[in-house]
Structure formats: structure tokens, C-alpha cells
Specification:
alpha/beta, 8 strands
Length: 203
């Protein structure tokens, strides 16, 4: 694979270069003079970012980028299998309701959706349906569980008032999960025009 196309976005160390991986995702390579041996890969803004030492040769870059992209895809596929489909998500929601909400939140449906790019989750109390953005599949389990609890509580408290947050706080890792999602949102907003910034990311 070649990674020589210039991307109009730079780091403090060196310009980035980019190309596509085997499934068509954009791969951006960032060289860092501060790195000596370590290589890191992660997803950012719909692309794969690979951080490599600035001293790497073109051949080393190609080899390491291919390895890290494959490793990242394998890890994500394993995670998708562990989270399962809609039936597994429903079972997870019921278990969380029983553990933290005395089983009072009883959703009629819980499913993954691909069309929620501005919200992590949403709930329609009228028909007791819950939808989670498929973007959550790449995030830690405790973050997925937090969004599920948040939406489950909407079945009991439609608004975001004090009773609502008191119920959400029953989930022990709620504050940590909110901090994680806020960090992701801030990173997203940093490269978006101001008029594109979303509202409450968890409805």
C-alpha cells in the first residue's frame, strides 16, 4: 500500500499522509519525533490514525501500518461479536434494568442503528423503544452500559431533571462514562464548523 497523499492536517512533528485500507477506510499516518519505537493505531473522525516514529523508513511505515490496521480490525470484529446483535442488546438492557433500576424499566425493543451520527442513543417512551448508535460498538463496555442505562431511565423519567439524574447515578460508572463521551464529543467538535455541533449527545 502507498501512503504518500498529502492530507491538509499536520501534527507538531510532521505532515500526515493517508491512503485507504483493505475495506476502504481512510488511513492517516502521523510521524512523531518524540516516538522512538512504539506504534499506535486508533479510529478518529471516521478514519484510522497510525502514529509512528519519524525515523521510520518508507518500508517500515508500510509494514507497520499494515500490521496495525489489521490488528485494529481484528480487535473491533472481536468486540462486535462480543456485543452481539439486537437480541443480545435487549438482554443486556434487561440485566442493567434489574441490577440498577429494580427492573422497573421494561423496554419493548432495543436495537443498534447506523443513522444516529449526532446522538449516542435515543428513546421513545410512547412505544418503549431504545436505539443505540453503532458508533458505540468501538467503545468500552461500561460506556455502552451507561448509554443503555441513560435510555432505560427515560422510560421512567422522560426529562433530564433531578429525579432522572438520580436514577442514572445508580449506575456506578456513570460519571466516568459521561467523561469518556464528553471527551469524544470535544474531539469531534474541534474539527467541525460551529453550526454543525450537535445538541445533547445522549437523548
Amino acid at each position: 500500500m502507498a501512503y504518500g497523499a498529502f492530507v491538509p492536517r499536520t501534527t507538531p512533528d510532521a505532515p500526515a499522509s493517508a491512503d485507504g485500507d483493505a475495506v476502504g477506510n481512510v488511513v492517516e499516518v502521523r510521524r512523531s519525533a518524540r516516538r522512538r519505537r512504539t506504534v499506535t493505531a486508533y479510529r478518529e473522525q471516521g478514519r484510522t490514525v497510525v502514529l509512528i516514529p519519524a525515523a521510520f523508513s518508507p518500508a517500515e511505515e508500510r509494514r507497520w501500518v499494515a500490521q496495525m490496521v489489521a490488528k485494529l480490525q481484528t480487535r473491533e470484529e472481536r468486540r462486535r461479536r462480543s456485543l452481539g446483535g439486537d437480541s443480545e442488546l435487549m438482554a443486556r438492557a434487561r440485566a442493567l434494568s434489574a441490577a440498577h433500576l429494580d427492573g422497573l424499566a421494561e423496554p419493548a425493543s432495543v436495537r443498534w442503528v447506523d443513522n444516529q451520527q449526532r446522538r449516542w442513543g435515543s428513546c421513545t417512551p410512547a412505544d418503549r423503544s431504545i436505539r443505540l448508535s453503532s458508533r458505540l460498538r468501538s467503545m468500552p463496555d461500561y460506556v455502552v452500559d451507561y448509554v443503555l442505562v441513560h435510555e432505560l431511565v427515560h422510560l421512567l423519567e422522560p426529562g433530564h431533571d433531578e429525579p432522572f439524574w438520580a436514577l442514572v447515578a445508580r449506575y456506578p460508572r456513570a460519571e466516568r462514562a459521561r467523561g469518556f463521551l464528553e471527551g469524544v464529543e470535544q474531539a469531534t467538535h474541534a474539527v467541525e464548523p460551529p453550526d454543525e455541533a450537535p445538541g445533547d449527545p445522549v437523548d
